[in-house]
Structure formats: structure tokens, C-alpha cells
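REQUEST FORM: STRUCTURE PREDICTION
Request ID: SP-0412
Submitted by: Lab K.M.
Chain count: 1
Length (residues): 334
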Amino acid sequence: MKHFLIICAILTAYNVNGQYARNVSEELDRIDAKIGLVVPFGIDYFPIWSEDSKKIYFNIRDTWKIFDLNKVVLVETVWRDWAIGYNPKAIFELADSTLIGSFELDRSIESLLISTNENTEAKIEQYGLQSGITIKHKGEVVFEMVSGGEVYHSPAISPDGKYVAFIAEMNGLMLVKLDKKPLSNLSKFEKARDKGIAAMNNNDREIALEAFNKALEIDEKSSLVLFNLGLLYQQKGEYKLSIDYLQRCIETDSLNYQPYYELAYSFANKGESEKALSTLQKGEKLTENRLGIYYLMGAVYKNMGDIDNACLYYSKSYALGERGLKETIDELCK
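STATUS: Completed
RESULT:
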């Protein structure tokens, strides 16, 4: 059995305190995004930058915590028509109590709406029930976003001038990187990518393939585009092409388990069982969500005639919730 899931965001397995933690600038470059939802929780007060621009202090329910710009791995997704990075399993350290005492918590109304320095202006405006943020860098508009109903407030430019943080109520702390590609190039990529995603959701593979290949011409290292191209060719039964795109996806970002799973599935359908198993073993190390991985390992071992291992991994998948395996296990593993 094969579970197909059209992916609009590739989930990332990581340990923020371990070897998988990365710098937020490198992460935004990796997924070709200009903005990240770095603290995905409702936040009180406003963001406060450290003097070295390496940390942001934020408050949740009267507890001050730290977002460390060097301890993050982002998921690529789409939000408010922008490619963004999302921080799904963020773990934050508590801020030192002596440091909290030095925070200036009395702010003017104006500071909730605008932040400026020599080169940058970040301004919040209200449009009826919606908020909008416009960021100008060296006189050029580099970022504009209108809310879907939540309130934007408290823009804060980092001391080194490389980022703007702001709060999107009901969503969390947003971080915009200022030294990215021009808006025109990003919007062309986003338009092609979003057209591909919409076509996939409508099961129109040919339009999706055309759109994703156009997006790939703009950004040849987009893991989301490479992943979805691998899925599309897999669904068409063109496993050689599927393998090529999924391998390129893994080369771009080796920490996502899903490309390993799909690559293994394509190897298995191409009759390359040993490659399928070795790929699944790599993917297994990157996630705790192993139900599908164990199911596919069981199927590959079964096709190889290794019934003992087939039963072992089918049983593991069943124990994690794959109830459709009960009859197979009863018949195969007597």
C-alpha cells in the first residue's frame, strides 16, 4: 500500500541543540525565502534584539525566552503569497532574570508602528480590519505583506541592520531578511511554484510539471520544487526521472526524511531493492514518524523473499497504527 500526500511544505526532523541546528540566514537562503515564522506562538509585549543581533528576546505569558538565530532549521512553505520558513518544533531557552531587569518595557505608540535606522524603515499601517507592513531598504521597497485579519505590530530592526522582526498576532514572531533577491525575481518563482502546487492539488500533472520546471529554471536548488517533481514523475511511473529529482532534493537538504521515503519507493518500483532499503535506513534516522518507513521496508523485504524481516517491519508499522496490515501479518507471519 502506498500513501500519497501532496506536499506543500517538507517537514524537517532536527534537534535544535544538536548537529542539525543552523543559522537562520543560511536557512532562509537554502529555501529561497525572505521571511520566517521563527516563533510560532502568540507573543506578548514586543521583540527585543540582543546587542550582537544573534538573539531575540520575546515574552509568552509573562515568561521571557530567547530565539537564537544560530539554532534553527526551517520548513519551506507558503504564507500570505510569500515563500517562508516555518519553525515547527522550536525549543527556546529562558532569558536570564538579571538581563530581563534591563529591558525597557515602556514603549510609545509610535514604536509599535515604525522602526527606522540609517538605511531601513519598517512601517505598520492599518487597512480596515487588516494590517500591512512595508519595509524599505536603501529607499527601495523590499518587502510588503498584508495580514489576513491578524494585527501586525512592533517592528524591530536588528542592530546590525540585516533583519526586521515584527509580531503577527495569533501567529507569532516573524523575521525578514533584508539582503535577499529583488521582489521581481522572487515573485516569478513564487507564481510558478504556486501554479504547480495548485495543479497538483487538482491532479493536473502536466500543468504541474510545466510550472515546477519553470520554477526550477529560476531556483534550481528549491527543495520543495525538486521534491514535488520527484513525486509527479513517480506518480506517472517514470521512476528514473523521479529518482533523479529526489536525489537532487536530498543533495539540497539532507535532513528531511520524506524525500528518502519517496526515493526508496521509486527505487523499489524500479526493482532496486537494496538501494530502497539503504535509503529507508537513512530516512529512519531523521524522524520519529516511522509508520510509513517500516511499512515500505516490510514490503521491500517481502518482495525479496525475506519473510522474517518482512514480518518484523510489518509488525513495527502495525504497532505504530497501520491497522490495514493485520490480515497481511496473520497470513504471512504464521
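NOTES: The CA atoms of residues 72 and 140 lie 29 Å apart.
Reviewed by: T.R.
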